[in-house]
Design brief:
The protein is of the alpha+beta class. The protein is built from 12 helices and 4 strands, in the order ααααααααααβααβββ. Strands 1, 2, 3 and 4 form a 4-stranded antiparallel β-sheet that branches.
């Protein structure tokens, strides 16, 4: 039996998670001290966000970015949960750079209106990290690794009730007396699952992450130090559901 297994992003980030747990009380200060936001945020992003002909910004780019950094590092699933935490914790608000708790609509608009600029910011961060590693003599940044994967889509076919309905129909057919003697309702229900999602033909039926589901094919490109270079997919907004 082979001793090799496929690495996941969880494996790659395990040591960082352990560090985060051990330094939970001061990790925000560590972020501020060691992440150069002035270099991280592209000038294009700043020019658009602080456009003098646009609306006045109540909160800085840095505070908005810290909101999402904290949310992801703490594995907080929804924006509203973190907003509720900010209401109860003035210290946390201060550390993230907020004088007042932002409105949920402001957070949502930031993600929507500046998604391209956020992508540029992440690209810029990767470039900064790679440059620092090259300066240290680490040459793994010249290696590119491509890995195929898939993004599970928010479509009707991924709702557990969709398969349950197919199984229910198959069992009803089995009880009707018209089914063959060797009829298997579960196998039959799985065979009736469509090969692609009705809302987007790019979303295919695949076996990923230990189960069947409807995924959008994608490729994630990293370098030799597992730093993400580019996620590429045929993503379509047609399958998004609020």
């Amino acid at each position: 039996m082979s001793n090799f297994y496929q690495l996941s992003f969880f494996d790659i980030n395990k040591k960082f998670r352990e560090f985060l747990t051990e330094n939970s009380s001061n990790f925000i200060e560590l972020l501020k001290n060691y992440i150069p936001f002035s270099k991280l945020i592209p000038s294009e992003f700043k020019n658009i966000y602080y456009n003098p002909n646009g609306r006045n910004r109540k909160y800085s780019i840095e505070s908005m970015l810290m909101f999402f950094i904290y949310k992801n590092l703490r594995s907080i699933s929804k924006d509203k949960i973190l907003l509720d935490l900010l209401k109860d914790s003035p210290d946390l608000r201060m550390h993230l750079g907020f004088d007042h708790v932002p409105d949920a609509s402001q957070i949502s608009r930031f993600k929507t209106n500046f998604k391209d600029q956020l992508h540029l910011t992440l690209d810029n961060l990767v470039s900064i990290v790679n440059k620092e590693l090259k300066d240290l003599g680490i040459d793994l940044t010249n290696i590119l690794i491509a890995d195929t994967t898939g993004f599970e889509a928010y479509v009707e076919e991924n709702n557990p009730k969709f398969l349950e309905s197919l199984i229910s129909n198959a069992k009803s057919y089995e009880k009707s007396g018209n089914a063959p003697d060797d009829f298997d309702s579960i196998k039959y229900a799985h065979s009736q699952m469509p090969k692609e999602a009705s809302e987007n033909s790019d979303i295919k039926l695949k076996y990923l992450c230990g189960h069947f589901g409807y995924y959008l094919p994608a490729m994630i490109i990293t370098n030799g130090i597992k730093s993400s270079r580019h996620p590429n997919s045929r993503w379509s907004t047609r399958f998004y559901r609020q």
